[in-house]
Amino acid sequence: MASLVWMFSFWFACLSLSVMAKRTYIVQMNHHQKPLSFATHADWYSASLQSLSSSSDDLLYTYSTAYHGFAAALVPEQAEALRKSESVLGVYEEEVYNLHTTRSAEFLGLDHELGMWAGHPMQNVKVASQDVIIGVLDTGVWPESRSFDDSGMTKVPARWRGMCEEGLDFKASVCNKKLIGARSFSKGYRMASSGNFITKSKEKESPRDVDGHGTHTASTAAGAHVSNASLLGYASGTARGMATHARVAAYKVCWSTGCFGSDILAGMDRAIVDGVDVLSLSLGGGSGAYYRDTIAIGAFTAMEMGIFVSCSAGNSGPSKASLANVAPWIMTVGAGTLDRDFPAYALLGNSKRIAGVSLYSGRGMGKKPVSLVYSKGNSSASNLCLPGSLEPAYVRGKVVICDRGINARVEKGWVVRDAGGVGMILANTAVSGEELVADSHLLPAVAVGKKNGDVLRAYVKSAANPTALLSFGGTVLNVRPSPVVAAFSSRGPNMVTPQILKPDLIGPGVNILAAWSEALGPTGLEKDTRKTQFNIMSGTSMSCPHISGVAALIKAAHPDWSPSAIKSALMTTAYTRDNTKSPLRDAADGGFSTPFAHGSGHVNPQKALSPGLLYDISAQDYVAFLCSLGYSAEHVQAVVKRRNVTCSSAMFTDPGQLNYPSFSVLFGSKRVVRYTRELTNVGAAGSVYNATVAGPPSVVVTVRPATLVFKNVGEKKRYTVTFVAKKGGKVQNRMRSSAFGSIVWSNAQHQVKSPVAYTWTQL
């Protein structure tokens, strides 16, 4: 009997270990090899898994469009066994992605409801945009928001195959002619949560947004006009999305611990089948080979089916080579500022007035200065105001200086308040430079740049009795200079393919007002009991849906344009000078920005609608691009998903030969780099364009021919550009590592501009 009990215990322990060891893997199948004995690919995938596992619960998803294969809960030994199958192209452990967290429409020139927009009657664009559907993969949606009001909208397009899924606190009836679809995908998250999904009271297994991020991004892309919108009085006015008449479909793929690759892929798979025209993903992870990048693989299928895919570049700036979502068939979006600010001030005991920003909306501090403190001792935890790091006896009744970094900005304010502090000054360090991001703090708080932060730190250390009084200036418009590239916006160069310049462009991403979930307060902290219908947020998460919405407008005006054509129009018409006529600046150091930070420049919707010329790219061009990367046939097929795809017939000798709207020239051991591009005339017949080149003196650039004559609309013309690095400048250029220039094709009506990045050595 004792032996039997021991055997049972051993078996149970092994079973428990097996369950604990299971992880989510994404299995990519060669779907063309499906045996005839299986009626569907899903049946085949299920049988493939059942040969290794007896539990049907281990099969999480089967994919049929964005990806070919399935996601399953496996132990490493099972994953290795699958890799040995000839029908399996790859088995990859699931990656966890992160979210990249009013006036922007006016700033972009989209507030004019009457008149002509680049030659197109605005009313026609508005009507046409009702046929455009934007799919937003995020944290779900708060359907009751006024931003999703469908007043005046026509019937849902008959081609729409999506639906509103019912779930916890979410009825199908909450959808309408504006919010036409809502689904949720949680199996990857549930697997990673080890059964704790249900016990997390905040989570709702439905499309209901309890985070706020998804509602914010969806309304930024296509929210309806909402008058008298504000965040507790800040940024008051009319809130609206970029494409106010476009439809929205929400796909909830992100949860409290992140966005799981299997869920993202399931959302993309479904969105493509449902019939979206634009996919907007304000999320990302690390960058790697395209055949292992689930978002890149799903986006390739979307591109082939005419769907424009816009993704955030990431919030890992100003570090170099920090980009996410760099596949050339994806629009990679960085972030810049608006011409709106929320000034706040700290009046010091020495009469100096330090300027910063804030969205604090409470009673304030009154008119009496209080003691100002900073880091008793040299504890970095207390400098940063990490939870539990402040001594109440030291900070009670005082204003505390907190260094920016590590934990959330709003959490620092809560830490100060919890310890008895009455105010906070959030001071930037070298990482954030002079970038100012306003937050709706729970106590009086002012955010300041590094220079002012250093002044404050020095004042506290030198003054016998340092004091401060915080005050708040509301909302200020027409700020100069603007836009400025956000310091947090991720930077190039592109480490996956250095010959493709990324990011592609920037859009508004700092202090953006948009709709919010009423399930939580504006800070997102559990102890924030305030409720608001709108919130102000910053991140490339916010800039991405701006571009998604503008792409929807272009799609409405030009339904026959490919995703690559829309992307070209957005990139070649972007501007690189701010509202003071100066080159764009970088908030990280206050100096001039470069294409590694802003790509082609800041989006210009009006000009993008009528770009004159386009750099178009076909799916076959992308195959040739993939072949030039040295990928095996299996790796190319993993992305392309076509039968018998090979690199024998079409392959670029250099990835930079792709007909991309920008240039990234990597000299390496070469002195000469030559690329040929093809332009398509979408302007008037008989258009003539002349080339103008700008660049560093260490590179000679020649364009042949220097004049292009287009007799007809739709006509295509090629040109070849040769870049020659001058002799003798090699050492100097390597010390500098990079330089920048441009190639512009122009006439009286249009300027078609391509940035050029030069690098002599690869990072």
Description:
By secondary structure, the chain is α/β, with parallel strands linked by helices. Helix content is 24%, strand content 26%. The chain has 20 helices and 41 strands. β20 (343-348) and β21 form a beta hairpin.
Q: Concise description?
A:
By secondary structure, this protein is α/β, with parallel strands linked by helices.
List its traits:
763 residues; alpha/beta; disordered N terminus; seven-stranded mixed β-sheet; 24% helix; 41 strands; 26% strand
Layout of SSEs?
Blueprint (H helix, E strand, L loop, with lengths): L1 H20 L1 E7 L11 H10 L8 E5 L5 E6 L1 H8 L4 E6 L2 E4 L3 H5 L8 E2 L2 E2 H8 L3 E6 L40 E6 L2 H6 L20 H10 L3 E6 L2 E6 L7 E6 L1 E2 L2 E3 H14 L3 E4 L1 E2 L9 H11 L3 E5 L18 E6 L3 E2 L1 E6 L4 E5 L12 E4 L6 H4 L8 H4 L3 E5 L5 H10 L4 E5 L17 E4 L1 H13 L4 E6 L3 E2 L6 E2 L19 E4 L3 E4 L18 E4 L2 H18 L5 H10 L12 E2 L8 H4 L6 H4 L4 E2 L4 H9 L5 H8 L22 E4 L5 E10 L5 E8 L4 E6 L2 E4 L5 E10 L4 H7 L1 E9 L4 E9 L4
Parallel strand pairs: 8-12, 8-15, 9-12, 15-17, 17-18, 18-29, 22-23, 23-24, 24-25, 28-32, 34-41
Antiparallel strand pairs: 1-3, 1-4, 2-3, 5-14, 5-16, 6-7, 10-11, 13-14, 19-27, 20-21, 20-26, 22-26, 30-31, 33-35, 35-39, 36-38, 36-40, 37-39, 40-41
Helix pairs in contact: 5-14, 7-14, 8-9
